[in-house]
Sequence to fold (409 residues):
Amino acid sequence: MFLPSGDEEAQPLFADTGDYMEFTDMQHAQQSLGRLLDGVSNTFDMPLVFFEDMTISVLGALRAMQCATPWEPGGVLLLGPVGSGRKTCAAAASALVSSSLQRPRSVDLAGLRNEIRQFSATDSLGRGLQSFGPITEDWLLLEGGDMVLEDDIDDIIRGATRIEVQKTVHALLRTKSRAESDQDDPPRRTLKGSETSKYQGAARLAFVLCFSPSLAPEWFRQQLARFSCLSSMGVVWLQPWRHNAFLEVGTAVLSYAGLDSASLDYDAKEQRIASMSSAAAEMMEMQRAGAQTPGGGAHFISAVTTVREMLSAKEAELNKESKSLDRVADALAQMAKHLEVFQAKHGNAWREVQDCEQMVKEMEKQLEQKLQDAEEAKAHGEILSQQEEEVKLQVSKCSIVVHDATEPM
Fold:
């Protein structure tokens, strides 16, 4: 992430204007993201589904870019190696956000080289990737941009695994510092065979998610595509992970200092937020006094504000649910009281109704028994009718025989 130092009087490039003005709630944010990325080529040929937690991750990146101004545009570049899981990407995002961002104070290329040389001689790279930003559109066309991005970052992105990223950055900058210590205009650095061997078979990038508040985002993307490490990957905006991956990444980015809802209770979160807010206030006082402060102060304050807003929203949601449950409990208690009053007033009638229901059930049973007896009697009557017909037939036959026997010859 490349963030400018920030100007208190400068207005953000997109806060309530442009394509991001509809990011007021989750539903509008999802609809707006769908329109923004509609028709964008997808090299994985997979559908893009905007889950709620995925939108949280995107809004977290956009939140970090609120420090950008029309005079100092910022950019966010999220990289992920092939096969990296949810926790790995969340940890990488958290490491990028919590890194100390160092802004260059030089105004020319020689001063920038000297500043990089001095900065690489320190041990400050141990906490994560460093940026010598802000990376503006004009700065990308300068030789300094080619030197930093194409030589160093290109090699890192092309070959380094997620475990060796910090060590590789440190080694590359230290090697450049030793090679250029006695030269004002050194030649472009190339990797030796021993350095190239550790890149063989390393993980390659699977996706690039790039946001830019630039007034010409397409032009900005074309400038990024000038570097081989980015141009060879094509345009991939979002890789459809399992949806809970984006929640982990977004939470890690927004929480900044490792606030984990599973490991910290509400009181502990409040204490951590209070300490972070106090530290941010001290950093702002140091900035106003002209003292040297870490370049990540603006984002630090933004992260504190974001975490506080998240907890406030969660508290409001819990309070709303608690009030709803209280209303339901009151309604149930009122219904119980009404039932007791009804039973007290109409106790005898209620018992009579219950007795009548019992009598009706017994009469239904008796009627059912009588119907069954009637069916049996009907069947027995049919049998007797058949027997009667048979007797009549026998009597008729006997009459014929008797008549024949008594008739005179």
